[in-house]
Fold these 4 entries.
Entry 1:
Amino acid sequence: MAQEKSFDMQEEFAGLDFHSIRLEQGFIRTMETLIQQLDKSIWRASKNRAEASD
């Protein structure tokens, strides 16, 4: 069985700077959603349409 790698998105993207806390938090949230469902498209992995288009 393949070992799953765990990602800490806050640490992984620590150097990220969109000059907007809201955009940075949205990006991190989206990446957390996508990493859990790598086999799906962004639209299918997203919880709702708003999250998919952030």
Note: Helices lie at 9-12, 21-35, 42-45, 49-52.
Entry 2:
Amino acid sequence: MTEKRTLTSEDISKIVDGLNPIDWVQMELLAKLPPGQRILPALNATLMIRAGLRSAFTKKFPELSKSEINMKILEYLTPIRMEKHGSI
């Protein structure tokens, strides 16, 4: 096992430099929304991800039903690995 170490400011700079710049106008607009509406962009993003996975799995496994495809998506997105009796 590798030893944990504290990040230096140089390490953090390398990480931050690779990220997109913050869109301050977008952040201000989101901050003005009530919490229920603030979460909508994240929910829409997850819908798009699931739709993409559904499309990919449907192409890869054309013989599976919609329910089986949905279980594949759940298995893919769930960090806990299912045992043989629960996995497709």
Note: The CA atoms of residues 75 and 83 lie 11 Å apart.
Entry 3:
Amino acid sequence: MGHDANHHEHHEAEQNEIGGPVTFALVCLVLAIVVIYFLAK
């Protein structure tokens, strides 16, 4: 049972590490689309 708890904690840690870069990439993508939209006018 201890092994399952450790695996769960490790999985949460991986999600937190991935969450930062993924969120940053999505924000950059949205900003790029907005900039391109206004430059294209």
Note: The chain has one helix and no strands.
Entry 4:
Amino acid sequence: MADEKKYIAVDLGAESGRVMIGTISDDKLVLEEIHRFSNGPIEEDGSLKWDFKKLIYEIKTGIGKAAKVAGGDITGIGVDSWGVDFGLLDDSGELIENPYHYRDSRTNGMMEKAFELLSKREIYENTGLQFMQLNSVYQLLAMRMANSSALAGAKNLVFIADLVSYFLCGEIFAEYSLASTSQFMDMRTSRWSQEVLERLSLPIDILPEVVKPGTIVGKLTPELQRNLGCGPIPVIAIGSHDTASAIAGVPAGNGNWAYLSSGTWSLMGVEIPEAIINDKTFEYEFTNEGGVENTIRLLKNIMGLWLMQECRRQWQKEGTELSYDELTEMAEKAEPFAGLLNVDDNAFLAPGDMPKRINEYLERTGQRTTQDKGQLNRIIMESLALKYRRVMDAIEDITGNTIDILHIVGGGIKNELLCQFTANATGKKVITGPIEATASGNILMQAKAAGQVKTLSQAREIVRNSFDLKEYQPENVALWQEQYDKANS
């Protein structure tokens, strides 16, 4: 690969966002972070929302900086974000209100309301998606049942990353992987599910055309070109759901492998050619989400590092400042298996005093409570690792394949104790890296759209050539098996 090309990745997470430059040449990818900014919910009229004006300001600032650093030599821009959340545009293309945050309480009870109109099994048969009250379908149902004026005045519904792309290039679309998180897409046909939308009396006419990952959707508007000092850079719909981009950036080769995208959420699964929607996936509550290059991400959403993040935030409020490294060191010294959590319990979904809620859970389930910060973090990490084991067993049961390697990518790989616990609990070899899998997958799909990268396997080879990876072998397997059996007895 003799040619060198530069791309801009806009990578938006629930806690922070960043703008990065990715340079691909000689079968290697080099990433450079240009601009990082905080992100998070704001309270507006008693609801949790996203400050979209601030988000766009920071993104434009980052693109302007990146264009300057690259000397204007940019081949493309791709935007990825978390799933499910969306903005509503009016007839003139203006954003009607700030998009709601997926943790907003308006979806409380909406799953049950939906099941009164369409059974749980019928929804699953029509969508193949895991049931979570934060899914777009329940957000939209909450708006419909509240007679939302914003919904009444909406001409288009656009998911977050695609909404950013719209403000960059003026084109309205729904990228497949991001749209697939809604639970109103039929994952067998990759089209909006008319059955679900009609039975729940939700508007289908506001949903945009679905485009595949790797589609060039437009170019930076002339106004932005002038303001940011750059040319008509193509805007590319990559795997706009951050997990789709992260899985594109998994450095996997041949053999049976699974992935774990580890961050605020843990997303664990396998890459398959078509959706699996049957009794087993329904029973295990697995989701079929869109991937890049005509793949399906068969996975389970798990609460992830959110519990640790919220504990740390609470302790900061109380005046104790502890880094994640310090908390992990404290956890390593704490008593093993002093407690067990169902990390996906609804009690842990909303922001707030997480240490208190964890102790309430421990007390409610007849376990010892603790005020020891290291002990609390160890309980979280061991509970997560045992949950990963449970999901791994389900993957093998659903697919009929034995998984040889678990690839962990994302910021969670910095927690080496959790990575080792995961190897111990699953009994699998764990390979971690890269941390920047999402940005890598974002850029590599842009490179494929530009013709610089030919296949997904070539993209993954570039990742293997470009980043240091670390291996973890299972330890204390018998002890972890005993705890797993105890947890599932």
Note: The CA atoms of residues 130 and 285 lie 5 Å apart.
